[in-house]
């Protein structure tokens, strides 16, 4: 990735912000090594890890990663042959082993629902035996337990016994007339493992014993009385035994750690990656960021995008709310020319495009609305800001040309090029000609390009050259302030005359300036082109609205026809059923007559014949279930699946229907759907 572009787009500053969200020095070191990648599959994997972990930890949960340490120095020491680690170092190893175990269990437990998150645990090894050995050796305060070994326990018991005997002997001596008058205080202290009494320096020679130390002021000497010297020798020997056993234990644990050095290195790498991913999640939460839809077609489609460094300033220093921008590039046009007033936000817009692209290529979420699209490119090039080099004796213009020359040689259709104030810093006519040539060269080679400029001649390309589009930064003339909104399809103006009038320049001067501007044929042409474009866009929008209305009316007509047909079918069936109902009623009346007056034989015979005919007709009567066309929102039966769902969508043109079956929507033939 082009280092100059990373620098001028302020990607290192974004990395600094991200590092602040890491929970450990190990994670911070990993974050500072993060660079954009140009492999779509790799970038998609990293982005999926961030997204899945954020979803897993919703809404504000933390990963159980506390206690993680950077063990790089310790592993380097072991590699050099160090055989005894400090207690603090061993405890750092223990903390890290526990953190790795917790994180591994947490991540592996969600493999079914969050496979990319679970995949991050693949490099994390577990060290149960080593972790247990350290736990049974050290207490919660970091000291070695007496139970760590029998020899250590014996030595400490001996030390405790000797100290008790010495304390009793010294207490007796401190009460004796030969010692008591010369004491500075009644405390008992150890110096280099030897028991001593605090004696006034002026009386040091009057107390029999060996001087072991002197106070900083020189007014007190610490004397080991002759009466406890033998016990002092025994105490020193016991303390030495304790120290030797302690070193032996530390050496033994150090050897165990050294045996696991390779797997510890692998685990550290995996944990560093986990901590970095968690940092991405925490940053995403803080700045309301979303994952971009990645593509390898060079398509940029940002919705409500905000510059991350401005968001950080807003968070830390309370600056005004960051204005979001909508910007696109690479679809129906791949060259964008942004114009507008100074301090209007052109450069911020340019940097936002580049910086969010770099963030997405680094597997980070971006401060933009969900659904925003960003490309994975081979490279990003940028020439932004004051490039003056005093060391190389280059002017600002020369520095820009040097950088642009490298861009023209290296950029291709898989690159994004961002150029700020193209053609500025030199003679306006020559600068305009050079800027146009540079822009046409990049455009001809299919390079995704976005530039800012004040040169009016470049705006004409947005109206005359296919694949080139103008954009502007909206400016409020009343308040003399830019709104910072990017307007795609509209060429901008510097608004210099409006600004001059509001700031009180003489009206005569402004009128003269307007007269000069009226004679500017290129400005007139731009105004005409802009007006024509506005009319064309209005006509296009009107035609599109008319087409949509016509389509809506066609759909409504089709729906009415279908309902009418259904009603006709219902009427046919209903009429037939009414006829059969009449026959049933006649049959019932015949049966009643037969029961009431069975003597009228002839009548009964005639009615019996009629009844036979009616019975024959009724046997053919269909058992009809009237079906009405189901509507969106109705519960329906999909006959081919034998399942009931909710009708979400009906497309009569394709005779297809979308039914929500609970787990997921299913598209089926419209004829397979009936009311449930």
Topology:
Layout: H1 3-8, H2 11-19, H3 25-31, H4 40-56, H5 72-80, H6 87-108, H7 115-119, H8 128-137, H9 150-174, E1 183-191, E2 194-200, E3 209-214, E4 220-225, H10 229-259, H11 261-286, E5 293-295, E6 300-305, H12 308-317, E7 325-329, E8 335-339, H13 346-361, E9 373-375, E10 379-383, H14 396-410, E11 415-419, H15 428-444, E12 448-452, H16 456-459, H17 461-464, E13 468-476, E14 481-488, H18 496-502, H19 507-518, H20 521-596, H21 601-619, E15 635-638, E16 643-651, E17 656-660, E18 665-669, E19 673-675
CATH topology of the largest domain: Rossmann fold
The name of the CATH superfamily of the largest domain reads P-loop containing nucleotide triphosphate hydrolases
Helix content: 40-55%
The CATH class label of the largest domain is Alpha Beta
Number of helices: 21
- CA-to-CA gap between the ends? 59 Å
What kind of sheet is the major sheet? 6 strands, mixed
For the CA atoms, what is the radius of gyration? Answer: 44 Å
How many separate domains make up the residues?
5
Uncertain residue ranges = 387-394
Q: From the 3D coordinates, which CATH architecture of the largest domain would you assign?
A: 3-Layer(aba) Sandwich
What's the overall geometry? flat
Give the strand tally. Answer: 19
The structural class is alpha/beta
The neighbouring-strand order within the major sheet is 10-11-12-8-13-14
Strand-residue fraction? 15-25%
How much is the average pLDDT? 84
